[in-house]
Amino acid sequence: MKVIVIGSGFGGLTAAIRLRAKGFEVEIVEKLDKPGGRAYVYEQDGFVFDGGPTIITAPWLIHDLFSLCGKRTDEYVQLVPIDPFYNVRFQDGTVFRYNGRRDEVLEQIRAFEPRDVAGYQRFYDKTEAIFTTGFELIDQPFTHFRDMLKVLPDLIRLRSDRSVAGFVNRHISDPRLRQVFSFHPLLVGGNPFQTTSIYALIHKLEQEWGVWFAMGGTGALVKALVQLFTDIGGTIRYHSEVSQILVETNGSDAPRAHGVRLANGNEIKADVVVCNGDVAQSYLKLIPAEYRKHNTDKHIASMRYSMSLFVIYFGTDKQYPNMAHHEILMGPRYKDLVEDIFTKKHLSDDFSLYLHRPTATDPSLAPPGCDSWYVLSPVPHLESGTDWTTMKKVYRDRIMNELERRYMPDLQKHIVTEHIIDPVHFRDTLNSHLGSAFSVEPILTQSAWWRPHNKSEDIESLYFVGAGTHPGAGLPGVMSSGTIASRMIAHDAVASLQ
Questions:
Q1: Which end of the chain is less packed: N or C, by CB atoms within 10 Å?
Q2: What phi, psi does 193 have (nearest 5°)?
């Protein structure tokens, strides 16, 4: 049985490896010149920049892929723990060094606000219960409403109607500590004040299993998975953008996917299609409306989409050892800034930033004596109407001036290479609806059964993986979507033979 996988992001690679390991003939078609999707790698002037996800959690999901194929992860890529996970820096100059050592976390909480130690203990205990329930669902499909009914009592018991920030704020009073323990939804495209409190499980996940880095960058992990895929007989072709998912009807039978048409006009026939492209854009652009009785244009437009990103990749001929591998630089506003981004869709003058310095762990990603960086600012998606052709330089200068003024003296004198992506890049290069960086926003009414399904309701033999599908964005989420799809395909293949 032949399977075509559209896109080589982590969701597509996971599905492809698992299906090939089960004996399916699998081919990946990728629009770009190399794999990764949002995890694309930029190489410039001797510097290496990871384009997308840089925070690795739940490492066993990676190990499982290699062991499934009779291999070991360390034969292909080396994963190392990061310490601290993040430095969280505030406008008043205080820094919370966030790691997995409970005594150190408690000590820092005590230094910020002694009365919050007991509140944090209660918060942590409750995240354990959320994790136990929530993570069990991460690789389970929600194809039917009865799947949702089974878990509704747990969701009600855990008060998943509350937001992450609302959950944190019930236990912690210091405004800075509230930010430390509620910012995580932003890493998966969510508004901390609207994302369901189920996402508080990220705290437990990090505390229990750590934050990891692939030596050579996230791109080295992508390369390792591609190598694993080809080692077990999979094939991948680049420069192969899909212009249409081929659908056929046979009398009264439901429409069925039977391959893809590439932008160059070539067609590749298959028994099954797995789409790792942005789910909204894929339905809108790759499948004629006549075949979409459920995922209509109106339905796609009615969903809420995550924010976009403005990212500056840059290399310096000077090192800044005071900055950790992961830095969260909080701006002067928190809730109001998030509201500007998600609700008002207004590009603010101020910002909070994620600063990535992988050379803190792996100096090989830059020339000797240099540092490789990217700085990321969450921004509204393209419904904001921002003209990025004129704003790109303005916004870039604001960010660089802030980094130089507060954290990295003489920074701009030492920048020797630079590359920028903005919401237009997410729309035009990564084919993301509205230039959203994480696809469908992770609110309660767009989670589990209410999230775009891994198996299309409209078209037989068509499956979806990636950030916009269940269970959601982030490395554990997109890899789990690949696991779900591969299991469903294998099950459906067996059923078709009976």
A1: C
A2: -90, 0
Domain boundaries, the chain: 2-42+50-80+215-303+441-497, 100-210, 307-428
180 Cβ contact partners less than 8 Å away, ≥ 6 residues apart:
88, 96, 98
Any residues with CB less than 8 A from the CB of 53 and at least 6 apart, and which?
10, 38, 39, 218, 474, 475
Structural contact between residues 422 and 389, judged by C-beta atoms closer than 8 angstroms: no
The residues, any chain, with a CB within 8 Å of residue 152's CB and separated by 6 or more, are none
- SS3 of 434-452: HHCCCCECCEHHHCHHHCC
Residue 307's SS3 state is coil
> In the numeric block, which tokens belong to residue 365?
């990603």
Yes or no: say if 297 and 366 are a contact pair by the CB < 8 Å rule: no
Region of 359 on the Ramachandran plot (φ > 0 left; ψ -120 to 50 alpha; else beta) = alpha
- Domain 2-42+50-80+215-303+441-497 carries which CATH code? 3.50.50.60
Fold of 307-428: Guanine Nucleotide Dissociation Inhibitor; domain 2 (3.30.519)
Tell me the per-residue pLDDT of 51-87, one tens digit each, with 9 for 90 and over.
Answer: 989 999 999 999 999 999 999 999 999 999 999 999 9
The owner of tokens 């469908």 is 440
Shared fold status for 2-42+50-80+215-303+441-497 and 307-428: no
Give percent of the chain above pLDDT 70. 97
Q: Interior CA angle at 86 toward 113 and 41, to 5°?
A: 160
Measured between alpha carbons, how far is 194 from 192 in angstroms, rounded to an integer? 6
Strand partners, 46: none
> Parallel, antiparallel, or unpaired: how do β-strands 41-44 and 47-50 relate?
antiparallel
Please answer whether residues 187 and 203 qualify as being in contact, where contact means their C-beta atoms are separated by less than 8 angstroms: no
Amino acid 155 reads L
Indicate the DSSP class of residue 24. -
Could you report the per-residue pLDDT of 276-331, keeping only the tens digit for each?
999 999 999 999 999 999 999 999 999 999 999 999 999 999 999 999 999 999 99
CA distance 27 to 47: 31
- Looking at residue 383, its amino acid is E
- On whether the pTM is more than 0.90, the answer is yes
